[in-house]
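Board notes (copied after class):
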Amino acid sequence: MPLSMCCIMELKYAKITNCYIYLKMKHLKSFILLSVLSISLQGTMYAQNDTLHLSLIECIELLQKSNSNVAIARQNAAQKSAEQQATRGLYYPQIGVNATFGILSKPVAIDLNPIGDALTGLYTLSAGQTQLLGALNPAITQTAEYAQLLGGAAQGLDAVQNGEWTKTLLNDQVGKIDAKLMWPIYTGGKIRAANKAGEVLKNEAESKLASVQNAEISMLVNRYFGLQLMMGVVEVRKSVVDAMKHHFENAEKLTANGLASDVERIHAKVAFVESERELRKVYNDVEMFEIAIKNILNTDSVILPIDDLKMHANINSMDSYVARAKENNPVFDQIGYKKVLANQAIIKERSQYLPDVALMGSYDLYRYEMSDLMPDWYVGLGVRLNIFEGFSKTHKVQAAKIQREQINTFQEKIENDIEAGITQAYLAVIQSVDRYKTSEESLTLAEEYLRVREKAFAQGFATSVDVVDANLNLSSVKIERLKTLYEFNVAKAKLMELTGDVLLLAQDDN
């Protein structure tokens, strides 16, 4: 049965067995048999659950699809992209349709009666002068010209007297539907700055998405290999339990034959019970890492790692990692984007000193109770310039410049922090490699020391304490080697996260 399945089956057993019974020696064999049966039953139950055996690269692929933080960052990038598309509309004309209806206190009219009175006087005077000429020269009255002059004056006077000399432009209830156009043609750089800022915000959001992915993958590596570590520790603890059980059985036999004291037998029993307790503690650690992996992958399935803890010796120089981080870490891209945003903010605030020029127009689509004398369309050019705003424009420009200085200071801090993080992670990687290499000899010595102590105990030349200590020493060396492998992979993941190359962790040749 695979290591992972054995680990999970015993974990389920440990969860159900909430109380631990310390049995007398005569019941020990029954207890062991019952424990094995319970483990088998729980293993059968667990085998029916949804379990995924995944490699690290498969977990990374699942994380990119289902991780909540990655999903939020991806949605933010999509939002900024849509907003960037929206800012392009500032270049185009704005066309809208308005409908208005209102009631006036009184109609709007033009009084032309003074003009009518003046015209009446002129026509009356013209008729009088014509008649006076006819009286002075009666022969003229017989001519057609005289008749036309006199008739024209009479017709004009009649038209003036019968004319409407009060013209209503707007009644007291009016309304209209009109279409309006406003097209900015010069804004002092505001529109260009807004579009540039929108593009930068989109790129910054995409860079933040990469940062979130790197951080989540680094955390996934921590949990993935953490679970693999605890599963390995389970195997070590199980071997200790088997060894303590075997030692206890030997102590019983030696005591029964008079070759060992009852104290040795009791000590062996205590060591056996203690080894079982330590094994149950490890099961809790396994479950915690299981839950952590399920959370980061946002899945209800149990994830079992199939990639073993490995150590890769091809570590580059620390300077190369620092240089790679400055080139590839998305945080530096984000700082660059913030600098561009700060520059665009300065341009935007400076544009307040310049006028806004726009092409404007309107056309009446429908009128209600409005005079035809009112024009139904107009086209024009509008200019707006704010002369004084309480020095707010000056202060806003200063604030934008200070923001740019803050970004420069922030960049220096980030560079120092990343370099310090790379140094710490790099030293942890190197130290892990060195410890793992030196642990080979420790493992060989621990195994030989246990063999000698067990042989000496069987011959009556060593105590139970010697054998137990030798077993615990061997298990400690094995667990330390596993921890060294785990610390190497975690430190390497952090190092690759800082350089922006965390995805390379899943490649065997890295």
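Comment from the instructor: Strands lie at 51-54, 94-103, 108-111, 166-186, 302-305, 356-370, 377-384. Residues 190-256 form the longest helix (67 residues).
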